Amino acid sequence: MDGQLQQYLPVLILAVVAIAFAVGNLVASYLIGQWINRRRLKSIPAAKNIPYECGMLPIGAGNNRLSVKFYLVAMLFILFDIEVVFLYPWAVVYREMLAENAGLIFGSMFSFIAILFVGYIYAIKTQAFDWKV
Amino acid sequence: MNLQLITLEVVVTLIGATILLGSLWLPADKRRHLPLVAAAALVVLLIAHCFAMGVDTTTTLHGFGGGIVQDGFAICLKRLFLASAAFVLAMSAPFVERLRAGPGEFCALILFALVGMLFAASANDFVMLFVSVELITVTFYVLTSFQRHETRSLEAGAKYLILGGVATGLMVFGISLIFAGSGTMSLREISKLDPLPNLMLFNAGLLLVVAGLGFKIAIVPFQLWAPDVYQGSPTPVTAFLAVGSKIAGFALLMRLLRHTSRPETGFLLDALAALAAFSMIYGSLCAIWQRQLKRLMAYIGISSAGYLLIGVIAMAKGFDGTKAILFYLAAYLFAAMATFTVIGLISKEGEDERSEILNGLHKRSPGLALTLTLSIVSLAGIPPLAGFFGKFLLLQLLLEMAVNNAAYYWLLGIALACIVASLAFFFGIIRAVYWPSDVALSRATAPAAPIPTSLPLKISLAICVTGIILLGLQPDVFLDLIQETVRAFRWQ
Amino acid sequence: MAPLALIALFLPLASAVAIALFTRRNASVSAGISIGASLGAFLISALIFNQLRGATAPETLNPNWLSIGDFKVDFGVTLDALSQLMLLVVTGVGSAIHIYSWGYMRADRSVSRYFAGLSLFMFSMLGIVLARNFVQMFIFWELVGVSSYLLIGHWYERASAADAAKKAFITNRIGDFGFLLGILMVWAALGTINFSSIADIMKANPLALGALGTGTGLLIFCGCVGKSAQFPLHVWLPDAMEGPTPVSALIHAATMVAAGVYMLCRVFILFTPEALSVIAWIGGGTAILAALMAVQQNDIKRILAYSTLSQLGYMVMAVGLGGPATAMFHLTTHAFFKALLFLGAGSVIYALHHEQDIWKMGGLKSKMSVTFWTFLIATLALCGVPPFSGFFSKDEILALALGHNMPLFVIASIVAVLTTFYMFRLVIVAFINPAKSDPASHAHESPSVMTLPLVFLAVLTIAGGFIGIDKLYEVALGKTELGNHTVAMAAGLGAFAIGLIAAWTLYANATADSLTTRLGAMAHWMRDRFYFDECYEWLNRWTQELLATVADWFDRWIIAGAGVKGLSLAAELGGGLLRLMQTGNVQTYALLIALATALLFWRYIL
Q: Are B255 and B194 in contact (CB under 8 A)?
């Protein structure tokens, strides 16, 4: 168990560092802001708490509704993105397997891409990529 | 690399892709023939698989790193899947007008789900098990909400998605625990491991995988989704969910138990026996009150899953349960398909399928009324039809098991009581079909016109009825056939 | 010969099927087919008789028609003198009645149904006559019951007709129950149900039936009691007069009711002396009871019905006294003249627009001369006046009784007096006295399609005694030992004279029945058939009520209450509770699934 988990230690350290960095920055900026303001000004004016201290006042809600087309395109992007992810490990073992098991290594990726290609044609034909429709 | 092991899957995938692409170029009015084309293709494929493709049912073949196996059991199941998908596609033909999202996509999705089921029949390691289950489940997420202009269809889809997600989560977690406990994903290798590296993790994982599969076959306590989803889904999808998906779940469960059952995991059989009892009771009792036909079918399905678990337990204990299970599944397939076909024909778009729609069916379409009656009689397990004999075989197994373990007498008693209780729903339906009360008739607004039934549907109903009657009257013939096919599939 | 007989048997069936399937809408075609089939069967019967002349033909058989374990039934025909003559009687009288029906039923709405029924009846009756074994006979026995049911209930819109049909069928079933038991006992004792084998066994060993011989015989006799309407199952026959008159003539006078007697003669060898004496006394009792009832009836068909009962009693008595040949002889002559009487009555009813009360008739002698004269011939035959056929057969019966059983001879003689009395009461009131109603004074003779059969049957009635029918029966059934013919003849003729004089003095020019007042209470008893029907009805109701009460209590409290209600209530309650789990809320479902999984974990893993 321990031996197995040990190899994931760098990942854990990376995660800890990432979290510490993000949280640390937020906390630090908050603390520093408080501290400086308290030193310079006796009281904190309301304008200090809005997102942008100078410039136009924001209007409306902060989060906009996006067109459903956006999600459609995003999903299709992820779909074909995954395809590329699968291509990486396949490419790594491709040369080794080509020698002994050429049919399998070639055929599996070919059928995989062929199926995705059918989906791609379908997406184009149903005008999924067409923003205006 | 042994391509012949996945011929069926490849061919069905090709058919599905062809239909998906073909529908893009077909004019809109031609598309409504697509379900029938697909059904015809499957029928041809089924016949070819039975007679022409030189499939040897008596040898066991392994391939793809042990992930795929082909034996008599898998072949039998694959044929059942092909038949049920063909029935479902035939049933969808008059349904096409209601599927606004497009018949091409609908057929293709049905066929892709079928591919998942075909893989499930052959799956022999946990990767294949998971992938096939997910292929089935994900396509059903779409299929259940296919009538997306209808709220109840969307609701069904959402429920199936969320609860299916829970089940998938349980199953993935279970598989990882099993891997942690045994160090392998292959079922064959697990069956050879002795002792298991970590029994506790393995057992926990096994329980979770069974829970995930229990969701697919709808046994208590993982059955809660079934009535709501059955009710909301388009009727052909419900049929496929009730028959195809359930059989696939059983195929995987049997394969799993066949390889993992050993004295250390005996607790699982006790747990399954308890779940079987609860499922039978729950299904039979809830069916009594139910007047919504598709919900009723869900409860019938739940109690059927309970009966089938008896066979699974018997098989895991080394009895010859495979035959009984396959027989019951075949009987269930015919009866459920006929029932759903009739329900689909009778109900109008957007109408809730309450039993009132059956009122006076006998007067409107005597043929359909008779078909529905025979199917319900068979589902209720009344002799001499197929359903009765299926239950009889399973109870016989239970009796054999009870010889060594008196606890099974309890299960036997519960099963018998549930069979009797299930007569209640049967009478409710027959009454509505043949002797509707005057009040009910006066409330019916629709004119009692005969229901138009197309020729392919007539043929498919005729096949179902023939199956129900033949399996009931001549069970030996079919049992011999199964015996022939599953000879290689024995407890090792 | 046997194939010919089979053709004769199946010809009427083919006709019934053809009418039912194809020609229901066309009355004349249906009638033609049915009459043709009947005539064809008659011609074939005549041909067979001409060829064999009473000799026994080899039987055809299909030895494996039906086989259940040891119980084997073959299918074939018996062609001996008995069945040959009976074939002639059934098809001959039947053909006459078929033709007559075409006139009588012309105005009916469902002529085709009627003729299909007649053909079915002919088929069944011929089946009984030709039967080779008990099972074959029993099947046709029941078929006869069915066709009789259909024909009595022909006018099923009338409640009385429908009730009469049911009564006939159910009463017959009671008798058939005993008959079936008897058949089973014969099979159990002798191991065969073939008539010829039974005869062989019984000839070799008269005690083959063992200790239960008498009981077996009486059970077989039960079938006859039902079908031939003997006391105490006689109640259905008068009610059966609700059917069309030709049906009454064919089924309830000439042929079907005679089937019981025919059956007794066929298996005469089975009966022990004790059984025979019971049979004789039941026959005699029925004869006198029915004759007494007939005296106070006013409906023309009912009078004839009671007369039929009484004559059947004669025949059964003759069998019981050891004279099957005599019984068959009387059966044959009776078939002629009773059919004739009924057809004559039908002719009168037809002319009077369905008036059946004899006190509303009268004066028909001159207006319907053919009907009157043929009716008179038949009446004289029935009363046993020489040279009509009835004289010979009745004389034989009286002589038989005289030779074997004195009390029964006395009863038979009284019956003869009563017979003449009620028949001439009928003739005088209906035909000779002046007309007493409007229809009667405007009556016309019936069309020739109806009168021709009357003439044909009248010829038979006159000739029946001379053509040697009795000799042929004696060949088939053995010669009967008779008593002193002269005494018997004197008794018969004396009885006729007494009856005639009594009827003449009482009813000549009478407008009402003075006997009713003279007899007082007795007349009521006679008219109301000695209250048998009421008695049966009361008995029926009482037992039914009792059984129904018990069954109802059991059903209500034991089965429905404790069994079904309790169980179903528990099941429904459980279902209702479980239903609460099905909330439709996904979060609840997910929570329940998670909890259940945790529970499984806790129970099985930890």
A: no
